Amino acid sequence: MSAEAAKTTAPAMSAAELEEFTAKLVAALKTVHDPEIPVDIYELGLIYKVDVNDENRDVTVDMTLTAPACPVAGEMPVMVKTALEAVEGIGTVTVNMTFDPPWTPDNMSEAAKLELDMF
User: Fold this and answer.
1) Alpha-carbon distance 96 to 111, whole Å?
2) CATH number of the domain within which 92 lies
3) Number of domains comprising the chain
4) Surface-to-core class of residue 100, CB atoms within 10 Å of its CB (0-12 exposed, 13-18 middle, 19+ buried)
5) How far apart are CA 26 and CA 41, in angstroms?
6) How far is residue 7's CA from residue 3's CA, in Å, rounded to a whole number?
């Protein structure tokens, strides 16, 4: 078997490996904060979807912002990409910005609501 053929037939990650890798991705996402809100973007509910290609570990993130006119709109996707690229073994990272559906405080985790005294 050629080296090229070996590359294309590499086994996908096992369920346990995918779970461990996903935990690392979430941990990386939790290092990114909206500068105006003292809660990370994951707990704020700004991350809508994270897709992992389990063969090459490429990651695609769909995310939003608290408002389309957010002052860090241009910076936030770069911050997310940079944080994820620090995860060992990650492939190519793509971050897509969407405002559909629009973010609402209902997207926040219970932990974020507690941190912001929203109960």
Assistant:
1) 25
2) 3.30.300.130
3) 1
4) exposed
5) 10
6) 6
CA 43 to mean position of chain CA atoms = 11
Q: Provide the token pair at 31.
A: 């290092």
C-beta separation of 55 from 18 below 8 A: no
Residue 47 main-chain phi, psi, to 5 deg: -95, 115
How far is 24 from 61, CA to CA, in rounded Å? 14
The pLDDT tens digits of the residues spanning 47-87 come to 999 999 988 999 999 999 998 888 888 899 999 999 999 99
pTM for the complete prediction? 0.86
Query: Domain range spanning residue 27?
Result: 3-115
Return the amino acid letter for 59.
V
